Automatic annotation (TrEMBL):
InterPro entries: Acyl_CoA_acyltransferase, GNAT_dom, N-acetyltransferase. It holds the Pfam family Acetyltransf_3. PROSITE patterns: GNAT (PS51186). Residues 11-166 form the N-acetyltransferase domain. SUPFAM superfamilies: Acyl-CoA N-acyltransferases (Nat) (SSF55729). Transmembrane segments: none annotated. This is GNAT family N-acetyltransferase.
Length: 185
């Protein structure tokens, strides 16, 4: 097993390995898991699963940031979570996808909160964002629990989406960190 990227009370994130194809395929073979992701309410094509896995492995190797394998601390694979670089808008996007058996147990919120903290502790960027299809209200609640706030709406991959964002300053303020302004003592 790879060294963990992040560990919470119940969850662990580790880098995906090329040998994790079956885990990712099983996750995205459930049409309900894909409802608000490409390809929509259908199983993801095997070639797309392989493309994503390769991208996750390469992104982590090259930059140290990626979508990672999400497991319980008891070693049960429950999904994926982490970051990917997006264009339009430019920046790192927080994303997560969990197996249906692990929905409604607080796992998405737990890992989203921890990932926001991880991002601002390990990265120099001044902001990060997340987005979901405009009708995916449960994902909005997860983003809000993680400290992100509504930012804008736009079409992404042909789907109307609501974007949420958090800046470094907002994150630090929420955590009680005082940031001196220039010229203050």
């Amino acid at each position: 097993m790879s060294d963990p990227i992040l560990v919470t009370q119940r969850l662990r994130l580790t880098p995906f390995l090329e040998t994790d194809y079956k885990l990712l395929r099983d996750l995205h073979s459930d049409p309900e898991v894909n409802r608000y992701h490409s390809p929509g309410l259908a199983p993801m094509a095997e070639a797309e699963v392989q493309r994503r896995l390769t991208s996750y492995v390469e992104d982590h190797r090259r930059t140290g940031i990626s979508k990672w394998k999400l497991e319980t601390i008891d070693d049960d694979f429950i999904g994926r979570a982490g970051f990917s670089w997006q264009n339009e808008p430019d920046g790192y996007e927080l994303g997560y996808s969990l197996k249906q058996a692990y929905w409604r147990q607080g796992y998405a919120s737990e890992i989203a909160i921890a990932l926001v903290d991880w991002f601002f502790s390990h990265r120099a960027e001044d902001q990060m964002f997340a987005y979901a299809a405009s009708e995916h209200r449960k994902s909005f609640a997860v983003m809000e629990k993680a400290g992100l706030r509504p930012w804008m709406e736009m079409t992404k991959h042909g789907v109307s989406c609501r974007f949420y964002r958090i800046t470094r300053q907002e994150h630090e303020r929420a955590r009680g960190v005082v940031i001196p302004t220039s010229g203050s003592n």
